[in-house]
Specification:
Radius of gyration: 23 Å
Strand content: 15-25%
CATH architecture of the largest domain: 2-Layer Sandwich
Number of strands: 16
Strand order of the largest sheet: 4-3-7-6-5
Helix content: 25-40%
Structural class: alpha+beta
CATH topology of the largest domain: Beta-Lactamase
CATH superfamily of the largest domain: Longin module
Shape: globular
Number of helices: 16
Largest sheet: 5 strands, antiparallel
Length: 527
């Protein structure tokens, strides 16, 4: 499995609750080490856990690192057909997921909210170091087939490392600010499970160690799950036993459609029954992003340079000390690519024992804590962009970032970002998300919005993309030069593969913007 996306900040608490049960969260059985398809998607040789205060079992670190370094590259495209895959039959770069999968995997209504809630705590080892361990799992799944059980074990083996990725020299403390982040585990078949994490200090007297509540779900709605974690944290301060009925009620409720609300009843001792409303945003493609965090830390021109590097699928490294900042900003950068999907290694917080893997020769978008800056700079990397989110600057660049995007469109996006950045106190977070997204969606509408006109359909209903005719139809030489590079990327190939499967557009919002753009052009011609 492949790691990806951490979420960011702690969203305001939102009530949520279910029927009361006496059964507590159940302890998870000990897991036998086995190769774990977890947290990453690069390639390379396995390595043992890095020495340091946070202990990670050598078998676990080696297997996860092995998978991180396993290069899984998507086969490229030729005119109307794909190149043959490698001899071993395995694509050389693991995708985070196809664009069309967003609709079915991340945004499907009616599914369970989550698959698991796990609690990860730090266990002191005989040598004085701490190792993250799963203390509880809800629900405990029974009667699994052999393959399902092995997959579950791999999942549960990977989770602790990403709940404590920073490798700090943990000591019991009396205070600890709660933090929210997330990661994504991607199977070789492209299916994804997202881990939404809240790291907090349990209530009590005296010194204590933090613990992580991690909700595993295949649904991508980060604001909603952040609010659910607020409810989990509120109940944790009362008793672990109060969390179980809340999560049971949540699990029994269907995931709402965009714009719809689910109401959950939850009983809290001494407070009575609460009605908790969870509302899903209307715009599904924006429900997993917070652009204000990016605008607060980076200037509009730097955001465009980062966007340009991401569009060409280069290596991107983001540095910050807080897990929440890394999580939020990296997720925002990936969201700028809509309707396309980053199709390579995507790890908002790289565990310390996997830091050496950032020198893998494939594209990646990763977040690393600032304390590891020197170690990052020592890695041999080509075509890499290293971004300091603390100081709001680029530490290392290729040098051509300002020239990648067509200048006219780049200036229009820059003007739009500057305008919204200067007026960010006027807009709500949701409004700013929509305005920023609109600028980047329009960029793709104007450059590749004519793609459907260049898909040739056969009698059996399958389409073939005519790449040469598509590029030739672009009148601007500057725009055509950029598009000829862009069509060679994995993200464009994934998008077109979906488009070739059905005449019905996979990304309805993008298609809506294309239609509006052509209507506006027609209106200008007629007036």
């Amino acid at each position: 499995m492949l790691l990806a996306l951490p979420i960011s900040r702690c969203a305001p608490a939102l009530p949520t609750a279910p029927p009361l049960f006496s059964s507590p969260l159940r302890p998870v059985p000990s897991l036998h080490p086995r190769e774990s398809e977890s947290a990453t998607g690069g390639s390379g040789a396995p390595r043992s856990a890095a020495p340091g205060p946070l202990h990670v079992g050598a078998t676990m670190a080696s297997s996860i690192s092995s998978l991180f370094r396993r290069s899984l590259r998507r086969p490229g495209r030729r005119e109307g057909k794909q190149e043959a895959p490698a001899a071993d039959g395995i694509p050389s770069h693991m995708p985070l997921g196809k664009a069309g999968e967003r609709s079915s995997i991340l945004y499907s209504a009616g599914q369970f909210f989550f698959e698991y809630l796990v609690v990860v705590s730090l266990k002191k080892m005989p040598d004085g170091r701490y190792e993250p361990k799963i203390a509880y799992q809800f629900p405990k799944r029974e009667n699994l087939l052999k393959g399902q059980k092995e997959e579950e074990e791999r999942l549960l083996q990977a989770i602790p490392l990403f709940c404590f990725p920073d490798g700090n020299n943990w000591e019991p403390v009396t205070t600890f600010p709660s933090e929210t982040f997330s990661f994504v585990l991607t199977n070789v078949d492209g299916s994804r499970k997202i881990g939404y994490c809240r790291r907090l200090l349990p209530s009590g007297r005296g010194v204590r160690l933090p613990e992580v509540f991690c909700i595993i779900s295949c649904l991508g709605c980060f604001g909603l799950f952040s609010k659910i974690l607020d409810e989990v944290e509120k109940r944790r301060q009362i008793s672990m036993a109060v969390i179980y009925p809340f999560m049971q009620g949540l699990r029994e409720s269907p995931f709402p459609a965009p714009g719809k609300t689910v109401t959950i009843k939850s009983f809290i001792p001494e407070s009575g029954t609460e009605l908790i409303e969870l509302t899903r945003p209307v715009d599904a493609h924006l429900e997993h992003v917070e652009f204000p965090a990016l605008l607060q830390r980076l200037s509009p021109i730097l955001i465009l340079h980062i966007f340009a590097s991401a569009v060409l699928e280069r290596r991107l490294i983001f540095l910050a000390e807080e897990l929440s900042v890394l999580s939020q900003c990296i997720h925002a950068v990936a969201a700028l690519l809509y309707p396309f999907t980053w199709a390579h290694t995507y790890i908002p917080v790289v565990p310390e024992c996997l830091l050496d893997t950032v020198c893998c020769p494939t594209p990646f978008m990763v977040g690393i804590q600032m304390r590891h800056l020197e170690r990052v700079l020592e890695q041999p990397m080509e075509e890499a962009l290293i971004v300091d989110l603390c100081e709001g600057k680029i530490i290392r660049a290729v040098g051509d970032e300002e020239d990648i995007l067509p200048m006219k469109l780049q200036n229009e996006m820059l003007a739009s970002l500057n305008r919204h950045n200067n007026n960010n106190n006027v807009h709500t977070s949701e409004q700013l998300n929509a305005l920023v997204s609109e600028a980047f969606v329009q960029f793709f509408v104007r450059l590749v919005g004519h793609y459907s006109s260049h898909i040739k359909w056969s009698k059996n209903g399958l389409g073939t993309f005519q790449e040469r005719a598509f590029c030739k139809a672009i009148t601007s030489k500057t725009n055509r030069r950029f598009v000829k590079k862009f069509v060679k990327t994995n993200m464009f190939s994934l998008f077109i593969e979906d488009a070739e499967k059905s005449r019905i557009p996979q990304e309805a919002y993008f298609q809506q913007k294309i239609t509006e753009y052509h209507q506006q052009k027609k209106h200008r011609r007629d007036s």
